[in-house]
Specification:
Layout (H helix, E strand, L loop, with lengths): L12 H5 L10 H7 L13 E6 L4 H15 L3 E8 L10 H21 L6 E5 L8 H13 L6 E5 L6 H17 L2 E5 L3 H4 L12 E3 L6 H9 L3 H4 L12 H9 L3 E3 L1
Parallel strand pairs: 1-2, 1-4, 2-3, 4-5
Antiparallel strand pairs: 6-7
Length: 259
Amino acid sequence: MTAAPVDPPAGNCARFAARPLTVGGTAAAAWRSALANAHEMDVADCGEVVVVAAHPDDETLGFGAAASTLAGRGARVRVVVVTDGSASQPGMTPKQRRRLAQQRRHELRTAAKVLGLPEPIWFGLPDGDVSAYERTLTDLLTGVLAERPGRTWCAANWRGDGHPDHEAVGRAAAQASLRSDAVLIEYPVWMWHWATPDDAAVPWDGLRVMPMAENAVGLKAAAAQCYRSQLEARSTGGPPVLPPFVLQRLLTVREVVFC
C-alpha cells in the first residue's frame, strides 16, 4: 500500500496571498522603529556560509548586505539557488519561460559579482513547486553543507516567510543543517510586507540584526538593480513583479535573521 503524500505545514502562505504586493503592506518606518533595540547577530566564528535562495534575487533582497559584509570580512560565502525563477510572470508560453530562466540566471551571476561573491550553484528545481521536491532538496543541501570544511553556517529563506517556495526551502535547509551540523539562520523577504511589528507569527525571541559594512546597502541596491526582469513592466503585460515601494522597503529595513 502506498502512503498518501503529506501536505506541507500551512506556514504563513495564506496571509501573504491575502496581501499581494500590489498593495502597500507594512511601512518601512514601522519596521525600523521595531528593530531599534534588536540584538545584533554574533558572526565572529562564521568562517563560511552557504546562502540558500528559493529564487534568483532572494539572496540579494533578503541577505545581500549581510553576504557582502561577511565576504568583506574574509568569510567564504557561497550562494545556492534552488529554482530558475521562470514562474514569476504567469501567462508565459514555454518559450518565454525558457528565455526568462536564462535572463534570471544571467541576472543572478551579475548580482553575485556586484556583491563580491563567487559563481552561484544552481539546483534547477521547478519554480512554484519546491514543496513537491523537498526531500530531494534536503539531500542536495546536505551534500553541499557536508562537503564544506569546518562548521558551516547555512542562511536560508525563513520557514514562515509566506511564499510556498520560501517556506519549503527553509524546511529543507533546517533538515540539512541538522544532518550536517551546520549553523542555521533564516532570513525573511516577504515577511516585511504582510506581517506587522507586533505580529505573533514572527519569532521575535530569535530575531537578530545582521552586522553591516558601511557600503553594504549601496552594494545591495546595485545588485538588486541587476534583476531587471523583476523591476520592469512584465513582458506579458501588467506591473513589475517587484514594485518600487517594495524594493525601497527591502533596502531601508535592516536585514535580520531568525536563529
